[in-house]
Specification:
heterodimer, A: mainly alpha, 76% helix, globular, B: alpha/beta, 6-stranded mixed sheet, 4-stranded antiparallel sheet
């Protein structure tokens, strides 16, 4: 039936909000389950009391001191990676332009690794290393790929090339590091939520506190940028909006990598899931973030249950789930010729 | 839709445009008649699309300037320009899975703010654009499932929803079959007549240009060769000069506009 744009708009954004709310509820539920599991099991019913300051000293130490930073970091980095992916994919109008595929995560990881192994730093210097690594990588990709404007597929190809250069550099650093350092680094490089502390929670928490409002303001420009350069500009989007969006996306991926290592495929997959659940009017950023958070805490919980008592880094599980999605996207891109 | 009593005037003054180093459009001076349909014609690569991009400020002039009611285009705020001059690029791409009404709604962007994203005025504008383009029944359909002709209507509807005083269209009929070409050009004629919009379009088909435009701009090698009403521009001499084709010009028995009958052999 003929219907006004407004009714359509309202219906779509309701679907988006619904998906976001359901995914966040599911993510929090999974996180709560995660708090109860481990060498020292705790009843689900006791969790709220312990979080509120009740329970024994040991219970508080385990839940609040050990497991809570883990799930909070998981929720935060999941949302951050997914947001980053959703923004970049839409700006480039190409589902393969996500920070894990085009090497932004690897750039952040290399930056952090240089701090870790060469400079012997940790904590805030490591965060700074990751941020600088990601920004330098993004700048390099944009410079190499620029040719009378930017085109999605060029970005993908250049990004994959840059990513493999970075991977070699990371391998080189690992061969030079001593055994213990190399082991720690290798686990971190897979993406792991083990031994997270309040520092990690703070890194990703502060990042999200700054980035989410920025994204909320810029989101409507994203809707135009995905219509292509010329149309976006005639409809009032300026270069500064595009630059700001890319900066926010790169920073999100960098800080998430600093907090939990370059967990792969979340940034690639979460927006695609959101996109398929939504007939889209709005950019689907909120649902993407929620699904990203759910994916990471879910994968972490699954890794802990399936491989117990072994500690399996969450990045391995997201790779097992994400790799087939990447292959499917590649096959689809190949079929339609332009990865649109 | 605001109906300006005096439509804005878009003028180019000794305008030169190009890309990194080389000039594509050289010293073009023209005034686009307000409230009329202007067609830019000329052979491939003569700078038609580049001129259009310059008029929309997608390219900054190498030299010369574009004036909007006497003001240099370079000094106009982005938002003001977006509600004054709209451009529909040659082959725009729609995001995967987007619906017709959703895509058209994005044309409302320059009328919105980040704190007031969708208003009833936007609703009305989209509804009007849908009905003006005969797409009301397809409002909820995904754009990827439409035919080429319908898709072009959607893009024009987006431009209508944007509601600029001057609509620039880059080859809106390319890749469309004859019926859909007539359909799109008829639609633009309606928009021009009913909404009093100035329309400037790049067209390949000289006969279509002569039939639908009030004013023609003929270009070759980046230079403006001739401009004026179709009867003055579509002559054997100008067709030879611009396209390098010998032609006989007759009067279109249907519309009375000049009709080009090209001879089969090209000169030089």
């Amino acid at each position: 039936m003929a219907s006004g744009g407004g009714r359509i708009a309202v219906r779509m954004s309701r679907a988006g909000s619904l998906i976001a709310v359901i995914s966040w509820l599911a993510a929090v539920f999974v996180a709560a389950i995660s708090l109860t599991l481990g060498e020292f099991p705790i009843a689900v019913g006791d969790v709220p009391a312990i979080l509120a300051g009740g329970g024994t000293l040991i219970e508080r130490d385990i839940v609040v001191g050990d497991r809570l930073p883990r799930v909070l970091t998981g929720l935060g980095v999941g949302a951050a990676f997914a947001l980053s992916g959703a923004i970049l994919q839409r700006i480039a109008t190409n589902p393969l332009v996500s920070p894990d595929v085009i090497g932004i995560n690897s750039g952040a990881a290399l930056g952090a690794l240089i701090v870790l192994t060469v400079m012997g730093g940790s904590g805030t210097t490591l965060v700074l290393g990751a941020l600088i690594g990601a920004l330098v990588t993004a700048a390099a990709i944009l410079l190499i790929a620029y040719k009378r404007g930017l085109h999605g597929f060029r970005l993908v190809l250049v990004g994959i090339g840059v990513a493999s250069v970075l991977t070699s550099a990371i391998s080189y650093l690992l061969t030079r590091a001593d055994t213990h350092e190399a082991m720690t680094a290798a686990v971190w490089l897979t993406g792991s939520l083990a031994n997270r502390s309040t520092l990690h929670v703070a890194v990703i928490g502060v990042t999200l506190l700054v980035a989410v409002p920025a994204v909320a303001v810029l989101a409507r420009h994203l809707q135009l940028l995905e219509l292509g350069d010329d149309l976006a500009r005639t409809l009032g989007t300026r270069q500064v909006h595009r630059v700001a969006l890319v900066l926010v996306a790169v920073t999100l991926a960098a800080m998430a990598t600093a907090a939990a290592g370059p967990i792969g495929f979340v940034a690639l997959v979460a927006p695609q899931i959101a996109r398929r659940l939504l007939a889209e009017r709005h950019t689907g950023l909120a649902p993407s973030a929620a699904i990203g958070a759910l994916l990471v805490v879910g994968a972490d919980l699954a890794a802990r249950i399936l491989f117990a008592p072994m500690a399996m880094p969450v990045g391995i599980l997201t790779a097992i789930v994400g790799a087939p999605v990447l292959l499917w996207l590649l096959a689809r891109a190949n079929r339609i010729g332009a990865a649109g | 839709m605001s109906t300006p009593d005096l439509p804005v005037r878009l003028t180019a003054e000794r305008l030169s445009l190009g890309y990194a180093g080389h000039t594509v459009v050289e010293e073009v001076s023209t005034e686009l008649p307000a409230g009329k349909i202007t067609a830019i014609i000329g052979p491939n690569g003569c700078g038609k699309s580049t001129l259009l991009r310059g008029l929309a400020r997608l390219l900054s002039p190498h030299s010369g300037q574009v004036l909007l009611d006497g003001r240099d285009l370079a000094t106009i705020a982005t938002r003001e320009l977006a509600v004054t001059v709209g451009l529909l690029p040659q082959q725009p791409t729609a995001p995967d899975g987007i619906t017709v009404a959703d895509l058209i709604g994005r044309g409302r962007h320059p009328h919105q703010r980040w704190f007031r994203q969708w208003s009833s005025a936007d609703d009305e504008a989209v509804t009007r654009a849908l009905s003006a383009t005969g797409l009301s029944h397809l409002a909820d359909a995904p754009v990827d499932e439409l035919s080429g002709g319908q898709r072009q209507r959607v893009w024009i509807a987006l431009a209508i929803a944007q509601d600029p005083d001057v609509m620039l269209l880059d080859e809106p009929t390319t890749y469309l079959d004859l019926a859909h070409q007539l359909d799109v050009l008829g639609l633009l004629t309606d928009i021009n007549a009913q909404l009093r919009r100035t329309i400037v379009l790049v067209l390949h088909d000289l006969n279509m240009a002569a039939r639908y435009a009030h004013h023609l701009i003929a270009m070759r090698d980046g230079e403006l060769i001739a401009q004026g009403p179709p009867h003055d521009i579509v002559t054997a001499d100008i067709v030879r000069e611009v396209f390098g084709v010998e032609a006989t010009i007759i009067t279109d028995p249907v519309t009375g506009s000049p009709l080009v009958l090209p001879h089969s052999r090209t000169i030089h």
